[in-house]
Automatic annotation (TrEMBL):
The keyword Repressor does not apply. It comes from the Eukaryota. The gene is EXOSC8. Keywords: Acetylation, Cytoplasm, Exosome, Nucleus, RNA-binding, rRNA processing. This is Exosome complex component RRP43. GO terms for cellular component: cytoplasmic exosome (RNase complex); nuclear exosome (RNase complex); nucleolus. It comes from Chelydra serpentina. Belongs to the RNase PH family. The lineage of its organism: Eukaryota, Metazoa, Chordata, Craniata, Vertebrata. It is found in: Cytoplasm; Nucleus, Nucleolus. Residues 48-183, 210-273 form the Exoribonuclease phosphorolytic domain.
Length: 293
């Protein structure tokens, strides 16, 4: 493990106060002292994730739910399934509607009112992951062609914001979808009405398991994985790689900032493949440990 303040090893008395003062005045320079030693102020190595935990089925009123913690960053995802008419242009498909809420409760950087820029960008990122990864085929959500389909409302609430919201939301989405049980629905031919059998339920057909891995870029060259909020603020850019279990690249999300060389991008992809294995193992273990409803 790396030391917590490589810049203050030789000082005696009051070194903690001096380090804290230096961090306040020159946060980036303070950070660079750690990066030179290939570590970070919280004691992690550059390629090390924070402790990750997942709890599945934590909201009794939802059709599927999951709570994910990535260090202090805490996100809960609840899924509600409702009936809707299939879209006119795709009569054999249902809908998946994600919405991310970043309330003032989770961080002083967010305000009450309509969704801010980051919440909207995160919702769009999750919508893109659903589309690009084909985690669920929308055809699987059709109950009766042209008549009835499922719409899955995936609501995310951030309870504690400390960076890397994209990884936490993607993980929470996957875990919550794997927790969903939908009742059997048939259309009565005489009345044309839907009949729901709550005694017969089936899980969703999860076709792919997308996992996001985010990096912050420092000084255009140094990559660190799973950045905290403070690290995101100091970084010159961020990049998120989404992979599935077949090692297929589902998406690369890079909102501006410093560019990446092909070699650096390849480093990110290699690390993302390893992270996928870790997350998938964690989900499988939790699902095995809980009894089916």
């Amino acid at each position: 493990k790396c030391a917590r303040d490589p810049g203050s090893r030789s000082r005696r008395g009051g070194s903690g106060t001096m380090a804290a003062g230096f961090k306040t005045v020159e946060p980036l320079e303070y950070y660079r002292r750690f990066l030179k030693e290939n570590c970070r102020p919280d004691g992690r190595e550059l390629g090390e994730f924070r402790t990750t935990t997942v709890n599945i089925g934590s909201i009794a009123t939802a059709d599927g739910s999951a709570l994910v913690k990535l260090g202090n960053t805490t996100v809960i995802c609840g899924i509600k399934a409702e009936f809707a008419e299939p879209p006119a242009e795709s009569t054999n498909k249902g809908y998946i509607v994600p919405n991310v809420d970043l309330p003032p409760l989770c961080s002083s950087r967010f305000r009450s009112g309509p969704p801010g820029e980051e919440a909207q960008a995160t919702s769009q990122f999750i919508a893109d992951v659903i589309e690009n990864s084909e985690i669920i085929m929308k055809e699987d959500l059709c109950i009766a062609n042209g008549k009835l389909a499922w719409v899955l409302y995936c609501d995310f609430i951030c309870l504690d914001y400390d960076g890397n919201i994209l990884d936490a939301c993607t993980f929470a989405l996957l875990a919550a979808l794997k927790n969903v049980q939908l009742p059997k629905v048939t259309i009565n031919e005489e009345t044309g009405l839907a009949e729901v059998d709550l005694k017969q339920t089936n899980p969703l057909n999860i076709r792919k398991h997308p996992v996001a891995t985010s990096f912050a870029v420092f000084d255009d060259t140094i990559l660190i994985v799973d950045p905290m909020a403070e690290e995101e603020d100091l970084a010159t850019g961020t990049v998120t790689i989404v992979m599935d279990e077949e090692g297929r690249l589902c998406s690369v999300h890079k909102p501006g900032g410093s560019g990446l060389t092909a070699a650096k991008l390849q480093d990110c992809i290699t690390r993302a493949v390893t992270r996928h294995t870790e997350v998938k193992k964690l989900i499988d273990k939790v699902i095995k440990s809980i009894k089916p409803k």
